[in-house]
Every structure is written in structure tokens, then in C-alpha cells.
Amino acid sequence: MNRRQFLGQLSCAAVTATPVLSTILNLQMTNAAVQAQHTEEDYKALVCFFFAGGNDSFNMVVPSGLDEYTQYAQTRSNMALAQNTLLNLNGIHQGRNFGLHPGMTGLQQLFNTGKAAIVSNVGTLVEPVTLSRFESGQAKLPQGLFSHADQIMHWQTSVPDQRAALGWGGRLADLLHPDNQASGISMNISLSGTNRFQTGAQSVSYEIEPRGNGAITLAPYLNGEEPILASLGQTAIHSMMDAEYSNLFQKSFARKNRDALGAAQTFSTAVAGKTIQTVFSANDISQSFHMIARTIAARQELGLKRQTFFVLFGGFDHHDELLKSHGAMMPVVSQALTEFDAAMTELGVHDKVTTFTASDFARTLTSNGKGTDHAWGSNQIVMGGAVKGGQFYGSYPELALGSNLDTGRGRLIPTLSTDEYFAELARWFGVADADLGNVFPNLDRFFTIGSGAPIGFMKS
């Protein structure tokens, strides 16, 4: 690369980075104001339950009335669930009756008792899109539409017009992190490894495991059967971490590892004494939610007033054997949510913890023979004591092929943006309207900031 090429690329990079830099600076300037809003007793948590691969959410939430079900069955063909197996959701919503996937009895109870709600046809949008603008090529569309990697990124960043590095949960943490520094544990905790959702300019996720005391640490720090060897191992590791290094990267690596080891001990100590009476299933998803419950129980020891959690459930890319595979996964989702809801009630924080689902996209309404393919707008679940449950939000779409939202094969244009969905959660979490634009840079394309709740599914 010659000098001119280098300077040209550097100039372009600077221009691209300007809005991001502006957002970071705005977050830094406003986080002090956010601190003043919180009291000592104040606590809230957001739990993101991500269905990786693209959940077939039109088989998760199904119109069950005679006419609407007939339309659904005609469109879905051999992918349709039998009408008599659907689990009835109480009430008439948007003039229609609905049922849940037959494997979701727990979620049925949560919805019917007002503890959970459905947000309909939400997806990644750069701007509001009509079918005519989509077909004419005039609409601005998310980068990599229908691509797993891109759509997962856009759901986790809520910036679908660029490939962004920072997630909206990370931007929340950048805004709120002065309230969450007492123990050195990040307010963003992941049960599923590193993720973009919880990555900020100054914040990263703290990764834990679903079993034991959660903390991931080096073997000598585990309680083994040989305490003398463990002690010697700890001494050796501390010696390496405390050594002086001339190389900047070696210094940084040693410091980060010292911090990580200290955080692991802090976290393990805080969580070790926390037991939950609610019984959780043995699978990894339920155990992840069990660990979240134990971590929330330790919130005072950890000194955290705001927390986000991330759980990823993979394997939803059902191009084949949809009915069988999806049918095995929906009960796992339902059980985990039901168990977690009971645990939040047990801990007395039911109205302080909100769980929400997300996924790359929905699936085509039409069958590919044995499964379904990548689509766009999808249905999501929100759950918790602060949710106005037992209701549908957004507009559940018509499922006939050739509708005014159908871009082909039942790939439906979303009628709610991820920005609106997530901004509703962020407002409840404590982000002031004046700061929403810093967390969600594209929100004002869909919603007049300061005019109230974007959708209305949260109580405050």
C-alpha cells in the first residue's frame, strides 16, 4: 500500500468512526446524570434469551381461529401444526384467537396469568419499508439481509446499516458503568461466551458457566482434592502475573489475567452461598437460568444495581426436519422461562427482572420440502413482573402468500424495528429519553423520542 492509499483509507475510517465516537463521548458525559437517578435499593436486570439460527416463530405463535388457521395451514402446508394441538392463549388479540406451540405449556400459563407477552413481527430495519419500495429497490435494507452472521450482529447491535462492533447492551453498560464498579464484576454477564450484544467501548461481558459457582478460572484456583498443590499453583500463577514486563502487550495480558483471577474469586465467593429452592431442569439452558438466578441473589454482595445477562440457545436453523427438531426445542424454552419466572418470584425481584427473546430472523412461511429457510420479521416473547402481560403488541401479520408484507415465500417485512423493541426495554432499565439516541442511533427513524413508550409493553 502506498502513502496515498494509506491516507485515503485512514480518512475514510475516520469519517465512518465519527458517529460512533460522538456516541461514546455522549455516553461518557451523561452517565453521571444517570447515577443520580438511582437509589440504594434500586435494582433492575435484563435477560436476553437468543435463539441462534432463526426461530420459526410463526410455529411458536399460531392463529387458531377457524378462518385464520385455515389460511395458516394452506400457506405452511406440511410445516403446519395440527389445530387441535395448539395451546390456547386467553383473549381475542387484534380480532383473532391465537395458540402456542404444543410443547409450550409453561409459557401458555405465563401468558394467561399476565406474566408474559408477545411482540409481533419485529425485525432489523434501517428505515420503515413498504413492499413497493422493496420490490423497486428503493428501500434501504439491513446489510446482509437473510444472512445468519449479519442478522445476529444487527439484532445484537441494533445498528443494521453497518457492521458495528459495539452492542446495545454494551452501550447501556458504558452509560451506567459508574453504578456498577464496587466489586470489579461487569454489569454484563454472559452464560454463552463472548457476544456482541454486551460489548461496549469501555465495557465487556463477564463470562460464567451454568454449573458450579459459575466463575471460569484456572485449575489451581478450583477447590480440588490436593490443597497443597492448589496453593503452590496459585503462588506460581501470582508470581507470573506480578512480574514486571517490558513489552506493553505482556504487561496488558498480565494485568488482565490478574483482574480476571480476582474477579473469579470475588464472583465465586458471592455466589457460593446462594441457593434457589425452585427446581430447574438438568439441561444446559435451564441450568444457565439457574445460575442467573443465583447471580441475581448475590447482587448486593457484588454491588450491582443494573445487570444484563445473555443466554444463547443454538440449533434453530431448521432447513430440514423442522417439525421434529423445533418440537424438541420449544419445551426446553418454555421450561426454562417458567422455572426462571418462579425463581424471580422466590427472590422477591419478579418486577425488577425482564426477560426478552431475540433471534436472527423468522423462517419462510412456505416449506422447502422438509424444513423452512431464512426469512425476516419474527415474533418474540417478553416476560416479567414489569411486563403488561397477556397481550400482543405490534401487528401480527396476515399469513397468506402475496400479502402486502410478503417479499416472496412468506419472508415478511417487519412492522416493528428492533430499535423500538429494545428502546422500550432500555427506558424501563433506566435510560432517560434524552439518552436513548446515544444507545440506539437509528431510533428516531421509527419513533419520536420523548413521546412516551415506543410500543407500550412495559409498565413504566
Summarize the structure in words.
- The chain is α/β, with parallel strands linked by helices and 460 residues long.
- The chain has one domain: Alkaline Phosphatase, subunit A (3-Layer(aba) Sandwich), CATH 3.40.720.
- The protein contains 13 helices and twelve strands.
- It has helices at residues 3-36, 66-76, 105-112, 131-136, 148-157, 168-176, 227-242, 248-272, 284-297, 299-302, 322-347, 418-429, 433-439; strands at 44-51, 61-63, 87-93, 96-100, 116-123, 188-190, 206-207, 306-313, 353-359, 378-383, 392-394, 416-417.
- The strands form two sheets. Strands 1, 5, 6, 7, 8, 9, 10, 11 and 12 form a nine-stranded mixed β-sheet that branches.
- Helix 1 (3-36) packs across helix 6 and helix 3 crosses helix 11 (322-347).
- Mean pLDDT is 86; it is low at 1-21, 28-40, 220-225 and 248-259.
What's the CATH C level?
Alpha Beta
Residue share in helix: 25-40%
Q: Averaged pLDDT, please? A: 86
Taken as a percent bin, the fraction of beta residues is: 5-15%
Coarse shape = globular
The CATH topology is given as Alkaline Phosphatase, subunit A
What is the level-2 CATH architecture name?
3-Layer(aba) Sandwich
- Give the low-pLDDT segments: 1-21, 28-40, 220-225, 248-259
Radius of gyration: 23 Å
* C-alpha termini separation: 55 Å
- Overall structural domain count: 1
How many distinct beta strands? 12
Instruction: Tell me about the largest β-sheet.
Output: 9 strands, mixed
Provide the structure class: alpha/beta
Count of runs of 4 or more consecutive helical residues: 13
The H-and-E topology, N to C, reads as HEEHEEHEHHHEEHHHHEHEEEEHH
